[in-house]
Amino acid sequence: MTEQRPLSEGTSVDAGDAGRVEIYRVLGALLAGPPDDDILEMLQEIDTSDAEPTPMTEIWRSLQAAARQADIEQLSDEFFNLFIGLGRGELVPYASFYIHGFLMEKVLASLRNELQKLGFERQDGISEPEDHVAALCETMGMIISESGLSYEEQSDFFRTYLASWMLDFFADLREAESAVFYKAVAQLGQQFMEVESQYLSMPA
Fold first, then answer.
1. Which of helix, strand or coil describes residue 6?
2. Using an 8 Å Cβ cutoff, are 32 and 25 in contact?
3. 176-197: pLDDT as tens digits
4. Distance in angstroms (rounded) separating the CA atoms of residues 192 and 196
5. Which of 3, 32, 93, 158 could cross-link 134 (Cys pair, CB 3.0–4.6 Å)?
């Protein structure tokens, strides 16, 4: 949904940050469109056998189980009903809607200005606004891995454009009538947003 920037000179990503980036990428991929066979296979191959028994580990295992049971055609219908619908899906996955109650509101203009400063550009052919949940997850992953932003700057971006609404979004997704596979996605999103909020609230 966005165009990746080159890694800034001197930018490095430690193991902890690399794990954060991967979760953002997984969420971005799952929320951008219904998962295909490659994504489902990737989810099933994540090795949690030696992981400590934490809430996040259990959620990964739930997502893996959901991926094993998933049917591509049913996933396509589920995604359509949740996020597209005939006129509108069950959920409206945009920051503007959750923060202001309407689409294309001032948080989107603020986000576009911020992304321009960071050097991110929209890909040709992308019609979704930048405040779509998938685009923001993808963007946050790139900010961690490629932008060279400081911990404090990452924290500011996260608080303004993700933490301000995504917990509510994932809570709604978890309770959505059409959600089956996406209940597990919602659990991952909820838990990860809580962990990120705690991490990015710590002193640098």
1. coil
2. no
3. 999 999 999 999 999 999 999 9
4. 6
5. 32
